[in-house]
Amino acid sequence: MMREKTFLCLALVSGMLLSRPAWARSPENSWRGADNVVELVNDDGQRVTLDLRNVTVKQLFDAIHQQTGMDFMYNTEQLASVPPVTVKATNEPVPSVLARVFGETDIVFKIDGKMVTVAKKGVVKAGTQVRKLRGTVLDKDNFPVIGAAVMIKGTHRGVATDVDGNYEIEVEPGEVLTFSYIGMEPKEVVYNGMAKLTVELRESSQTTLKDVVVTGIFRKAKESYTGAVSTVTKEQLDMFKGQNLLHTLKNIDASLNFAVDNLNGSNPNNLPSISIRGNASIPTDLKEFNESQKSMVNTPLIIMDGFEISLTKLMDYNDEEIESINILKDAAATAIYGSRGANGVIVVVTKEPEAGKLRANAEMGLTFEIPDLTSYDLLNAAQKLELENSLGLYHDDYPPSDTNWQEVYNRRLRDVLRGVDTDWISKPLHTGVGQRYNLRLEGGSEEFRWAASATYGNTQGAMKDSERRNFTGDITLMYRVKDFIFKNYTSIGVNRSRESKYGSFSDYVSMNPYESPVDENGDWIRSYRHREYYQAYAGNPLYDASLNSFDKSGYEEVTNNFSIEWKPLPEFTVRGQLGLTNVRNTRDVFVSPYNSRFDGDEYASDEGYFRKGTYDYNTGKDFSMNANLTFSYSKVFKDVHQLYVGVDLSASEGKSHMYIFNLEGFGTENITSLVNAQQYAKNSKPSGSQSIYRRFGLTGNASYTYDNRYYVDVSYRVDGNSNFGSNKKYAPFYSVGLGWNLHNEGFLRENSVINTLRLKASYGETGTQLTSSAGTLSVYDYITDNKYLNWGGALLQGLGNPDLTWQKTDEFNLGIEWGLWNDRLKGSFDVYTKKTSNLLSYMDLPLSMGFSSYSANVGAVKNVGFEASLSAYLIRDRVHDLSWMLSGQLVYNKNEITELSADIEAQNKAYLEQDVEIANLLTVGRPQNAIYGVRSLGIDPSTGEEIFLDKDGNVTNTWKSSDMVYLGCKDPKYKGILSSMVRWKGFSLNLSFAYRWGGQVYNSTLRDRVEVRRSAILDQNVDKRVWSERWMKPGDVTFFKGFSDNDTKSTSRYVMDERVLELQSVSLQYKWDNDALRKALPVQTVTFGVNMSDIFYFSSVKLERGINYPFARNVQASVKFLF
Amino acid sequence: MDINGKGKSMKRKIYIALWAVLTCCFSSCDDWLDVRSDLEDKEEDIFRSYEGFKSALTGCYMAMADRDVYGERLTMTNIESLANLWQFGQNASESVMADHYLNLHDYDNDYAKTAVQAIYTGLFNVVTQANIVLKHCDTDKDVFASEKTREMFMGEAYALRAYCQMDVLRLFGQLPQGANRQVELPYSYTTQLDEVPAYYSFTEYVTRLEEDLDKAAALLKEGDPSYEATFEQVNSDNSLSDEFLLDRQFRMNYWAVRAMQARLALYLGKTEDAYKLAMEIINLEIDGETRFPLTGASDLSKSNNYYACPSEALLLLSKFDLKNYTVSTLVGATADNHFYSPTRYYILSVDKLNDLYNGMLTASHNRYRSVWNKSLRENTGATYCAVMKYYYEDDAKNLMRKHQVIPLIRMSEIYLIAMETTTSLEEANRLYRIYMRDREVLLEADAFASLDEVRTEMINEYRREFFAEGLMFYVYKRNHSATMMWKDGAVQEDEYIVKLPASEYNPNLNKE
User: Fold this and answer.
1) Nearest-by-Cβ selection for A694 from B35, B37, B55
2) ipTM of the complex model
3) How many domains does chain A have?
4) Less Cβ crowding at N or C end of chain A, within 10 Å?
5) Total-model pTM
6) Domain end marker among A121, A139, A158
7) DSSP-derived secondary structure for A1034-1094
8) For A357-369, how does the pLDDT look when each residue is reduced to its tens digit (9 = 90+)?
9) Minimal CA separation from A690 to chain B, in Å
């Protein structure tokens, strides 16, 4: 359904474009006719009074300019032949004056507001060879260049381009055409008889970013790059701003896959798990897989200005400092990262200081986090009590108990009638109001430039007391002397974050609405007994939140990157870089001794008293050092042979440690210092981790392009890593890519529709490195909790596998890129297969080896998919300064496990034999994120019980874990983004929708909130559907089973197809950029913006979203000044 | 031209520089990539110091004292269930289910399998660790201050390997004599992943075992400070500055190896060798006094209460947290308000204790009097008996060396070996008199009228003396006993051959 819609939409877009190609149309009212000396596009009605005699044309133009401010654009050479003119005019419109004066000459004008373009009519030269050439001149953004001079070299013949950038000129084969415009690099083209010629002019300063692909190691021309890359520009970062930078990227590019995190919702301190092109790694241990909420094994490598950074740093980074982000996806792009490249690479390029007088950018903004509770639908106090009573929960067969239960009921009823109806879920929430400030200063001469920036961001989460604050300050210095460029970048990042002391949101969802958080006197109720005379207490989460507990963490990061670039020859560059980063992390978690968790019997004794209150303190340090040396050589031989060779040497070392101390015993909550603790927490001792790695890489890359038509790109890398096994210290990686620029072929060069058509294919092998050297070596651990007499011992931890190696990913990519009608309709399509083998896993050993298993490379995963993108300018009207672009992305990925170790298979079997549910299992032939359960035939209308199918397909009414089968995949097959960008003068309005379908979801809400066990209904609040949709009496045909005391087990009944459409971003910006502003204020421009994220969410599955932390709508308002 | 020429020489210089950098990097890379962690030690690093050798060797003993091996399963619980000394019956609680199936010798049962697998892995874990120590005694010779010390380390490693694999043979191997079913077993020299142990026939296996014991004896004769001095003398020898040379009875020493040789000889039916070895130890004198006297009477005296008779041990394991788990399994403690269920605890009924001491003068027999707590109560009111060997008061004296110990070889066993293998009835009677005197039972007359009588009684004596010390199953097995005390029915040959864990695979069997 969704799929059809998408295609329909795309078809509509292209249909509109085809039927009315407004942009391709040349102006019908040509201004080239003799009586059409002046064409008025946009007349300001300027009038002049002149009295000039025998002046040059230039003097005339200057005079008009002085009176009207109109600018004349012309080619001096062209006008040199025009004889002096005499003009007399009194308050006459400019067009009229010009028409009068130049009516008899071959000079023509085009007036567009204050812009007057002057051109000479084409002079037809005698001869039969002359052909008419039409074409367009575009700038780098594919906007038409108006008034660009198109000249025939060596002659005075030439024309200027019109408003759509179109020109028409008569030219003989063999003549050279020159295209020029102020501020742009001129371009020469030899006319070889083509009928159409579209030329792109570049800004005359250095080559701009868009034409090169920054791979983080080498800079490659996009024309000859075979890798699959998507680029995010700084403008896009501004337009789709989310809660943090990662969120922003999610709004822009669908090929970055963010795992849906229903547990952590919009917690500002939550680090999302990201992958590119499917999950290439699988967990080594099923137990771990089931216990940990998310896996970070598939996180792409992140490179900022040549150095690796953490995902956390990227999340907290100041997006105003970013020039562009390149996402390298296939092996051809990532093979240069060797053993780190298989998960894809995100390359961040920061802004370079710009020379010139001091420029200052200042921004301030407010951010709002507005909780979104639309997915919750709970019973109110009266309904809940009535439900409980109607289920007979206040009745007992034993008369004295029955009386007691009745008392409880009456008490609660009294409360309800008194008006107690606590809206628990709103209690821990608020609209978080945060701030953002940013200041960037830059300036200097061509030789010495500098930039300094500082930013402070404070995100207040939707749960009270949850926040994330970041400060970043950095200074970049650039010094250019002779062939050398020295650059130094220093940055300091400070983060302070705090988890809400309100705890888990799910606690509030569970609370019964007829319970009040405070008693009659307004004092906190510490805990509740849901079932009378039963030892089950539930603490009051609001009481606990009122205490002085905290959970805060933070880090301080200092980075210094230094580089020297030397260009001894124009075609040869050497660059050396050294980067140092030091990060200190801390986390402090204090639980007040008055917390209700210390109310239990365990803490009733004297010993227990001294154990109340806990403090968990973590401290860690990460240090990393990277050095590299890059050589690059690029040259064009005999005009058609382009060669590029790059070699990179890199070495890095990283050391880190983390110490964890769990302490307990605080007499009071007023003094929360670590030193006030009584002792280490029971059965705990200091713990932590420590690691060190060293890495070495040699990378080579060569590409050859023939005549801008065919190109081949080859990369090779050797990695050495201290984490590899001793027999496999060095790992080789490679990639080969081929490309074909069809648009440069003769048969397409004259095509008026196609301006870019490129085919490319690549194959390569990359790796995923081992996270530690564990498993490669036989290692001894010194045992501290055991002794032999008075000797300490060391125990062998396992037999190391010296052959243990990196995971290997073989990737094949086939891509096509096209641009039609001067890139008004652009798109690309990539198909890939990605096979990861050598997955790290445990293998069984004969027990006579002394150990039961060892780490080995077994297991394989395959991902197959495609990525398509299409963007179209529906409107690109330079005259009215209006443009509207629609773009869409569609990503498909299918993940399949193709091989598993025997150990995992055995763990699978053991899991199936236990009475466990919704276990994450790994099976060959199935995707990694699969849902397993017993097949269900629904609810038997006669009994209200569920009927199952066992694994052989027989009908049964007993649920057995061994009958669990594959029921679906949690990852959507298709997902994508649709976005719209409208710009009109200073305004821009952007929308971004995300959609996904083809995946399944296990609707845990129905299980946890609707099909609650009859007796457990007293302990928690439930969804409204309990009230209306459960089976009540024989004959009821319902989705939900009847009330029973048996837990609902995982079955196919709750596995639902998920189709989601969300409006993930809306932004409105206005850029105030005119003289009136500059006159009124000492600023150049002011930009106002409002960004909103996660506005609407529609899903085919009604599921409670945000279990431990609710989802929130993020709204940001900002104002930016450029001084 | 000029510019080009300049460019070329420039390029050449750059290429040379590039080449130099590359060569330099690769040659030093290997070392640079070799990193060391502060939390753990790589195998190649730990053996670079004497301290590391000590830790690794101590690690072997720790592994040996693990509860899966001699810390519990092979001394106190599972192994004794194989000999039917503990019996739980059908309604055994979950924690002792394995013992129930081991009673029945049902090696295919999952509980039994799990227990057997734990034992098997544990034994070979010690072997692998000993093998690695052994390997590095060769490759890292210079770490040792003296050749004597190195010989001690090597001797101990050989002995550790042999001790564990002797029990592999006794548990999983075929009957030592008159075997109808042949079993091949792995003898491990494994030190790394690509060295999977080969399987050997019974005779080949024994050859390897004897070879290791011979090497151990030869090396320890040189390196063991207790070869010519008593354990007490060694401990009080101030000239031994290295405290790792002390406490020889807690580590593989020369005399323990001789005792192991005697034990093996008897198991294989080489009675003459066994006799010689046993008598060598019994008759050994130092400074005119018996080197290894029987000291049970003083150990069990009211002032000492060393229930495990550690003073007469040739080899002990140290286990500092012994009581943490023995009180909840073997109980041992004096009766309190607790009710002890025989379906859950390793305890004996009064009748069974009486069976054990049938014909003994229980009134004076110090083992009966001291080693058993006979007043545990079940909630039905029935009384049960618990073995006290691994129980001690927390404030007892000599806690570490006398109480927190698990004896592996005691002199009592050497006496039993000697009595069983002697060809002289008179000598048997003489030794038995000495033996019983240590049990505070004074014999007026000769106890035995024939050597057959001696051999029959020896079986009872093993059961009585070494209860919860893990010897009885091997005694039954080497005698191919058709019955076991308290077990119904005849014992089949297969029941004596514990099944190897399912993961094991003998490559020889697949050979054509």
Assistant:
1) B35
2) 0.88
3) 2
4) N
5) 0.77
6) A121
7) TT---SBPPP-SSPPPPBGGGEEEEEEEEEEEEEEEEEE-SHHHHHHSS-SEEEEEEEEEE
8) 788 889 999 999 9
9) 7
